[in-house]
Amino acid sequence: MSEYIGHLINGEIHSDKSQTQAVYNPATGAVCANVCMASQETVAMAISSAKQAYPAWRNTPPAMRAQVMYRFKQRLEENQDIICELISREHGKVLSDAKGELARGIENVEFACGIPELLKGEHSRNVGRDIDAWSELQPLGVVAGITPFNFPAMVPLWMWPSAIMCGNTFVLKPSERDPSCVLYIAKLAEEAGLPKGVLNVIHGGADVVNQLIDDDTIQAVSFVGSTPIAETIYKRASEKGKRCQALGGAKNHAVIMPDADLDNVANALMGAAYGSCGQRCMAISVAVAIGDKVADALIDKLKPQVEALKVGPGSDDRNEMGPLITSAQRDKVSQFVAQAIEQGAEVIVDGRELVIAGHESGFFIGGTLFDKVTPDMDIYQQEVFGPVLVVVRVDSLEEAVALINRHEYGNGTCIFTRDGQASRYFSDQVMVGMVGINVPLPVPVSYHSFGGWKRSLFGDLHAYGPDSVRFYTRRKAISQRWPSGEVKDGTLFSFPSL
Amino acid sequence: MSEYIGHLINGEIHSDKSQTQAVYNPATGAVCANVCMASQETVAMAISSAKQAYPAWRNTPPAMRAQVMYRFKQRLEENQDIICELISREHGKVLSDAKGELARGIENVEFACGIPELLKGEHSRNVGRDIDAWSELQPLGVVAGITPFNFPAMVPLWMWPSAIMCGNTFVLKPSERDPSCVLYIAKLAEEAGLPKGVLNVIHGGADVVNQLIDDDTIQAVSFVGSTPIAETIYKRASEKGKRCQALGGAKNHAVIMPDADLDNVANALMGAAYGSCGQRCMAISVAVAIGDKVADALIDKLKPQVEALKVGPGSDDRNEMGPLITSAQRDKVSQFVAQAIEQGAEVIVDGRELVIAGHESGFFIGGTLFDKVTPDMDIYQQEVFGPVLVVVRVDSLEEAVALINRHEYGNGTCIFTRDGQASRYFSDQVMVGMVGINVPLPVPVSYHSFGGWKRSLFGDLHAYGPDSVRFYTRRKAISQRWPSGEVKDGTLFSFPSL
Amino acid sequence: MSEYIGHLINGEIHSDKSQTQAVYNPATGAVCANVCMASQETVAMAISSAKQAYPAWRNTPPAMRAQVMYRFKQRLEENQDIICELISREHGKVLSDAKGELARGIENVEFACGIPELLKGEHSRNVGRDIDAWSELQPLGVVAGITPFNFPAMVPLWMWPSAIMCGNTFVLKPSERDPSCVLYIAKLAEEAGLPKGVLNVIHGGADVVNQLIDDDTIQAVSFVGSTPIAETIYKRASEKGKRCQALGGAKNHAVIMPDADLDNVANALMGAAYGSCGQRCMAISVAVAIGDKVADALIDKLKPQVEALKVGPGSDDRNEMGPLITSAQRDKVSQFVAQAIEQGAEVIVDGRELVIAGHESGFFIGGTLFDKVTPDMDIYQQEVFGPVLVVVRVDSLEEAVALINRHEYGNGTCIFTRDGQASRYFSDQVMVGMVGINVPLPVPVSYHSFGGWKRSLFGDLHAYGPDSVRFYTRRKAISQRWPSGEVKDGTLFSFPSL
Amino acid sequence: MSEYIGHLINGEIHSDKSQTQAVYNPATGAVCANVCMASQETVAMAISSAKQAYPAWRNTPPAMRAQVMYRFKQRLEENQDIICELISREHGKVLSDAKGELARGIENVEFACGIPELLKGEHSRNVGRDIDAWSELQPLGVVAGITPFNFPAMVPLWMWPSAIMCGNTFVLKPSERDPSCVLYIAKLAEEAGLPKGVLNVIHGGADVVNQLIDDDTIQAVSFVGSTPIAETIYKRASEKGKRCQALGGAKNHAVIMPDADLDNVANALMGAAYGSCGQRCMAISVAVAIGDKVADALIDKLKPQVEALKVGPGSDDRNEMGPLITSAQRDKVSQFVAQAIEQGAEVIVDGRELVIAGHESGFFIGGTLFDKVTPDMDIYQQEVFGPVLVVVRVDSLEEAVALINRHEYGNGTCIFTRDGQASRYFSDQVMVGMVGINVPLPVPVSYHSFGGWKRSLFGDLHAYGPDSVRFYTRRKAISQRWPSGEVKDGTLFSFPSL
Prior knowledge:
Oligomer: homotetramer
Structural class of chain A: alpha/beta
Number of domains of chain A: 2
Strand order of the largest sheet of chain A: 15-16-17-14-13-19-20
Helix content of chain A: 25-40%
CATH superfamily of the largest domain in chain A: Aldehyde Dehydrogenase, Chain A, domain 1
CATH architecture of the largest domain in chain A: 3-Layer(aba) Sandwich
């Protein structure tokens, strides 16, 4: 009865139903579709499709490749309502949030439009007498991307537009939890003129991922997800001698300085902690208050707001927060909360008992707020990926930075202050890849790159932006000298230098 | 009686003689020194020294760090004769070749002098209303380099000057075959003002390498050597979740087009194939002649030159070629030659019987030339790392490129031609990282980067030049917004976009 | 009866008919419209409109400004037929040529879309201890552009999209000969969301130009046209202390080497010399043959092709060449031809007597070919801007380069050869801004910049591409240090250094 | 009896004494040397020397040119005491100040060492099918620099090292007030290996300047000095169709916010206002206090410090401030002070009566401080170039910015605050080229560029740093396509596009 979601291979939807998996509407708990899980043959077919599309696409001038991106941007904008509904239906996030996500994804398409500028190599006349040298950034071949459920539209757009603009062809394995919008978007790309086979989409689980990584045709692997899987993928790709960038989890701290405007801070934290039900790798999950006075006042301001959170189905845009992605995830978050209470955290708002009338089977949980959380508690150490904000109290900025630097993750962080010196000390010393100064979710714009430090990212190059061009290309260095007819060259046995 | 070569840790020579290994003069076969092999404690001490030196060095302004490099360049130039003698004595290469090597190493020091320019991040005003963003390239911490015997001065200079100019501190493990010059150079760096502990040098074998890779303090690993070890190191470092660049072996083809001036080609090949006794990862070991006419004429020109090669101790600058690094390597090269003959290659010059009067115990072998080698022979498939040049005959440029692209290695290559179109086809299509157009050894100058393709390099960023700055730094993206006192910010639950 | 073409000021068409001038259809010689010539008040109004639009536009984030460009590109593509008809009707060029022009103009719009990337400043942490520095490229304010008749769509698009993306507002004075398409295009920009007043278009002659240059509000002047006017404008703007880039005339030489394929060369020269009736500042007007053999063969190939040129109204796409822009220009070209014959040039094809049936009043002239032209002749020294190609014979490439370098202009040039060395010598030594190697019209793509040398360009920054961003912005250098509360700073009377 | 200071032409000192001018020791008022003023023939000889040196220098690989700069830096450092004595003797500044000046000049030499990196052009493979394009930054030829008395060592080093590293040759006309150190420095460059004729130094006045500007060989003119002369030079060079950058005067405001630490501010202002006797184009001459409370407190702190200033000969390093450059300048400053009092400014400290025992004939004047200066007073509007600081009182930051933006100059400025928002508002809105945030003299480091806005700079490119490379080079754009033998190209009459 429900729809079957197939793979996109060589421009065709390929629906082998040998193995399928239910896709849920998290707001109702109902199955809304079934997604085909790729067999080994299907994966091989997708890779082969990308391989065959490669030579012609590689040789298409970058400025011509960019024309596809311009039209693609336009089609994304024209169809944003449909895309956002697909996002909200399968992921659960509220529509306005889906729109925010899509807008950031479109930014990445815009960045990819600029590929003729971004692919420029460096040219040096006369590196030696009559010798010129230059570099080119040539495509790798077929590359793969594996993306998470929490940004089903945006994260794939971090990867493949940049990758294919560099001249590669792509096999994308999006999350099997909310696969519809990525397929829809891929079709828009084809309508925009993307040749068949340049972008292929397949669904599946760990087996599919492993097959992608192991296949000799795949030249590079980009991953975004949790840290344990990121690490596994990084090791496996490296074991195959491949380049890999694998982005993992986070525990993002916001530091609140005594000079910060606490009304602003509370408002900012509400969005950053509870938006998208906390299922963002850039969500703020720890508020580090400098001094008890700040902490007390902050709790006073946050408590009524958390209690007043409008939770409900994402399709109703009056809601501020939707459900979690699965019932399993809801249970896991509940256990985190219970454990935290057990370990001595002071619960200020407990969202576990929330029931949404008419959506009793939805995977909802209410916003939860803890005070006096300490670094030894599980709820501090681990990524909860739910609507839980914990307040940790420290005495100084130095102590806050040391705390953050001791955490295993280093994805995002933020400081609230008016003070230039505090912000400079913080941004210089904190061992975190993305830093906000009064910016609660410091996701870099598309023309800067995204990446965490420590165990939040494996690899050396960050996602999207300038780094992505370097990741998706191989440098070729060319040295050129033209012989002059008259002069005969002698033999140089020694190593050549100026 | 012979000297003991110790480790450089925190500015002091540390000579634990618990385990030592002989260092030979390859021209005489005699032991000229003993090198201390680091114990586990010694390695730990070196890492600890680097770790302690890190905070102060990281916070030293790049322009001040650069002052050390300027003085270091000067001291290298003033002491080049001493350095080249050390190189020649332990490696065997002729002095003029050592000078060429050192000159290219000094180039890397010059590149490192430019660090204030190279470390520039990108700044964007108004990424959103009143939001600015910028990126910084911050140092990693303590990083390690592992370098090969064949360029004992140059390859370490590919790594640590760039790494420490980026603000890192360094543990270097050079080849234990010819360790003296690297230690001497490190002392020059200290004389130039490098603070103690910023650069540490330890000697050892696989155990030391593994300890370096496994130690949690080490943030990144750079390696240059053979492909099997490069691959092992890349996997092991990645297994530890670290960034790694590992440069391996090569089988560099030179394509000779019918329009090339064969006198020039022969001269160029003599230097590129037999210089440094073929022990260069950029040496030309395969000459691909387009057509039998070219091949026959080329053989005619090469044969007398190979036979006339002046082979002898590197200390005598009239020699063109010195010995191999070890007797084992000489035996291995001899076996390659024997096997090639057995497999049907036509030997034109056989250098195996060469004896140098007065240096009968030296590790010498004569220049060897093969014709009619085919891709299935071991001598074609494997890296010989000796003075052996093989000629392969093909019918067209297209065939030559296909041949090269099928080889497992893709380090360097070169085409000899006068024709613009041939050179462009070649440089565009060949799957090799460094391409020469009438440049037999297309080692990029220091301000471009060095790296092969396929199994000649594991990792995504190349060695030295612009890529090295990206390899030795972590990108930090900062987004900044200052609150205006009057305006209160509302909560944004949706994902932030323009 | 005919239409009045007004000014675009603050988003409104402003048609003061106090002074007007006829606009001709060059194919028929008939007046097709009348263009309003701006009074002093009108010019002031346009400047004032731009000034008022400036603050809000300056503060709009670049990524939001870029959205206008994306939509503008789309509208240009959707309306390309209308635009090309307007170009062809008033300029005379054939429709396919108008399409080529527009396509290159749209490329500049694409470049402007990339403004968030292009505006990036440079950020340096720790230029001194705890001092950071960065640069910003801030807009200038109101800037002006003055553009020629020969590319009525493209040349304005070289200027204003880049200028306004940098945050400036613009007053454009296009050629009064063919003003319709630029107005139409400006309206498309408004439909794409460009705020009123950001782009203003006024028509007029020298008085209007002078008023624009003299007005204190105008911060910079871009000009493309003939060298005498370019020079006048450069001097006048500089006299007012303003920055100015003024692109002038050309005499573009193509060098034909003996190894060139003459069929290809002849074909290439036909398009480059006679396309757009020779009215391009990048047209080839001098063919420099190396040796008499090349010259004779070239003449043999060109003669029948010139004679067979299909000349007629641009609206008929079977035609290869349309009329000149005015009857005065036709007479001037005729005089050049007569004078050349008088001065001893050998006329191979004389196009002066051409009459197009049904278009007897059109400003047509036939393709003309001269041989044995010498550097002392007027037809060699001056820019003809008509369908006249002259062949000059020299004995060597060195002589050809010396010839080109002696000419007062240095806009474009080209060499036809297969030889790498010849091309390198040529591109290195020739004192010309844009060099083609087997590319007859080496107009740089939009992401490189356009500019001639010698008297073909006054100013230091070239048009469009990267240079245009620097031209349309002012660099601001910011040095920042935050005080630490505890430490008191001493006075530094000496000049601050590291 | 006193020494004659000659010209440096083609590596030789050329001393025609036909016209000479006294050089004074400002601390004693005595003539310490006579400088030869160049005749027309001498100027022509210098230009000719530069012209002849050009071709060989242009063709020297940049990396080899850089070797001269490395050695030159070393020689500057070795001889810094001699240079600083020469500076102090003829200019009057205290030795520690001269050392600061020289250190900043050496930074520019360091920047020039990086020329191989800085000269890189941009390379694009496949701008169209099989067409590649790249840009080169080629040298201009012979260029000229004209430099002021106040930084006799540093400002010339802003210009010629960058210019000659780009491949140009140079004619420098330093100030005839203090010409010795620049000649000494030029000789060090020759000792460092600079070929004869690459750098030439001539002395003279307006006639020499005009001859340099007018000579057709000179391709570009760089100037630093007062605004009236900068403007004249800019117009004259532009009149000759040349590129020119002319840096003029300044009136640099420091804004003191209520949250600033006034002890720090007072200390910072003392150095920035009175260092080098106020003879710096980056000197702070206006302190803008936000609110009367700040103003009163600031005056209280400044008054005793100004009164306590140690004034005396620069050769005694205990002094904080030396004399002015000439007696005429001293009289001019005195008149400014008198006029200000007359116009109603409140004099807090009046330095006019200062007499230095033992140096009664020196050109000394004491530090002077005014309060309650208003924008209509001459002392506010004009550049005094003496040790005079005026305090202006305003009510808000917005008012301060508006005040600064109304001033004719826009060279440097600074804000003292701890507040991030104030600093951002200020740096964004202020129409000044160089902005300090708690940095009183925000002279950009050598790898950023130096330049004012408004009437402080004529031209579009700033001095030194990245802009200087663009100023001293001409962009050449090369488009390359190699013909394929089999395919015949058709004629393209339309404008070429993708």
